[in-house]
Task: inverse folding
């Protein structure tokens, strides 16, 4: 499989996740967050089955199935956050709930990669998708039983007007076109270990396990800190972790042992993920009423997923222009990661400015 085809395995999924999150949160506000949450798992499970069955068809059907898969998490993310925002009033308990919700991202990605690698190396790769389908359908049943129901809007005429069907269609279409233009992004840290260091998929996935452990520690720490210090300081710390972690992996020599820069990067980087997401989500959740929790969650998730998708796309463009003839993959990978360092550093500057600007405003509000 060539580089362009491999990138579509990732990009097709990210395309629909980032695109459908915004309208999916609104659907939850109108139809009920519990209904949409369960529907998201059912959809995810059904298209996971079809993704596995694509082994009997072709690459195009597999990419299409991956794209359809992405609609499931797009429905799950904002409605899951909205359920938490509805169930918990502003309190340290709510802070911890949102922090733990954010911690599942690095943990889920690592353990998913490990099990997928096991299936691919020792069994048959379609079973990675079929196992996912079984898990999704079980979780859908459990969620329907245990999650309290909050009704949506039962006025069908008003619902159609508030849903803004045309706005959703044109908005989704525009996001699709933007994302397609930047579909050549790849996950450079994984590629660095897998391709340049010549490791097996299972060993490479195992080396990401510290991300899950560190992410859980970051989530618990963030849940405690959010009720004690300003969210602006948490965001600044998160961006610093992103920057330092990217610098370490970008400058790691190919021959260097994993336990040097690579391991330290795996420990530091998740703190950026698991500190920034709950802080940003809680800021919007606290600012909006209960009936708009889905919209708040959608906005945060859309920004996060499109930043990931576009950032990878920009990185892919940088790599392809630096290493045009594919003769020096290390140079191309490093160029892409250097761009990530630049973006993370810009984030640090913005977050630092926000801490300075927000301080006098907060003092003025107290007086």
Result:
């Amino acid at each position: 499989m060539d580089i362009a085809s491999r990138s579509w395995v990732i990009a097709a999924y990210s395309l629909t996740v980032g695109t459908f999150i915004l309208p999916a949160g609104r659907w939850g506000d109108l139809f009920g967050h519990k209904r949409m949450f369960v529907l998201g798992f059912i959809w995810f499970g059904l298209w996971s089955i079809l993704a596995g069955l694509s082994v009997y068809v072709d690459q195009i059907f597999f990419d299409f199935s991956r794209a359809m898969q992405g609609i499931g998490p797009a429905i799950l993310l904002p409605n899951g956050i909205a359920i938490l925002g509805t169930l918990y009033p502003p309190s340290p308990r709510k802070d911890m709930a949102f922090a733990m919700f954010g911690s599942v991202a690095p943990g889920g990605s690592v353990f998913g990669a490990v099990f997928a690698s096991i299936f691919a190396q020792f069994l048959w790769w379609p079973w990675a998708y079929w196992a996912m389908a079984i898990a999704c359908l079980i979780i859908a049943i459990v969620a329907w039983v245990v999650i309290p129901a909050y009704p949506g809007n039962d006025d069908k005429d008003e619902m159609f007007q508030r849903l803004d069907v045309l706005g959703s269609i044109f908005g989704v279409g525009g996001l699709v076109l933007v994302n397609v233009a930047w579909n050549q992004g790849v996950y450079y840290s994984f590629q660095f270990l897998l391709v340049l260091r010549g490791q097996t998929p299972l060993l490479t996935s195992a080396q990401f396990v510290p991300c899950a452990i560190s992410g859980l520690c970051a989530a618990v720490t963030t849940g405690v800190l959010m009720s004690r210090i300003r969210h602006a300081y948490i965001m600044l710390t998160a961006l610093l972790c992103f920057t330092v972690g990217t610098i370490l992996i970008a400058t790691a020599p190919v021959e260097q042992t994993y336990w040097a820069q690579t391991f330290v990067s795996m420990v530091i980087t998740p703190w950026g993920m698991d500190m920034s997401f709950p802080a940003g989500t809680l800021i919007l959740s606290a600012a909006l009423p209960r009936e708009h929790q889905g919209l708040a969650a959608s906005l945060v998730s859309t920004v996060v997923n499109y930043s990931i998708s576009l950032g990878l796309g920009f990185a892919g463009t940088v790599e392809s222009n630096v290493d045009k003839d594919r003769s020096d993959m290390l140079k191309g990978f490093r160029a892409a990661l250097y761009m990530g360092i630049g973006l993370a550093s810009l984030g640090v500057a913005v977050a630092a400015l926000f801490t300075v600007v927000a301080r006098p405003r907060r003092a003025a509000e107290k007086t």
The chain has a mean pLDDT of 77.
